[in-house]
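Quick one, tokens below:
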């Protein structure tokens, strides 16, 4: 495990520094492996499998997110076309395609609503009832109801 693959390369959730991010060779290999797996060219099932295939040690095999979520790996994925613009184009193609299955078109529409935050607000009804009946009257009513049902 080289220092450049983990220590100096913060996770994608950390604030990015002004310096330009250059993925390491192994991060580029990991990104390529992810793409190949998504395209069905490889049969890796877990992040551990991807780490093992790309020569990472047992520490990072146990914690693959340290590499998979690193700024360098994400940058390498973007360079391979995994970015927001490409995703938007894919969704657009599915939405407008006459040959797309309805379930795929609905899922694409769902993604558009999520991205834009344009879901219709859920409607809830709240019912509140106030009475001026005392507890003795309620007990008497409950006893009468109970006697009629038995």
């Amino acid at each position: 495990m080289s220092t450049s693959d983990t220590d100096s390369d913060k996770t994608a959730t950390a604030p990015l520094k002004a310096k330009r991010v250059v993925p390491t060779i192994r991060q580029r290999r990991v990104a390529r492996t992810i793409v190949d797996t998504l395209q069905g060219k490889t049969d890796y099932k877990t992040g551990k499998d991807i780490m093992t295939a790309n020569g990472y040690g047992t520490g990072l095999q146990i914690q693959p997110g340290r590499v998979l979520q690193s700024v360098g790996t994400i940058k390498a994925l973007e360079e391979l076309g995994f970015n927001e613009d490409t995703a938007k184009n894919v969704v657009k193609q599915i939405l407008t395609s006459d040959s797309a299955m309805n379930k795929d078109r609905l899922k694409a529409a769902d993604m558009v609503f999520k991205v834009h935050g344009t879901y219709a607000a859920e409607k809830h009804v709240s019912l509140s009832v106030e009475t001026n009946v005392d507890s003795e009257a309620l007990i008497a009513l409950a006893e009468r109801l109970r006697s009629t049902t038995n």
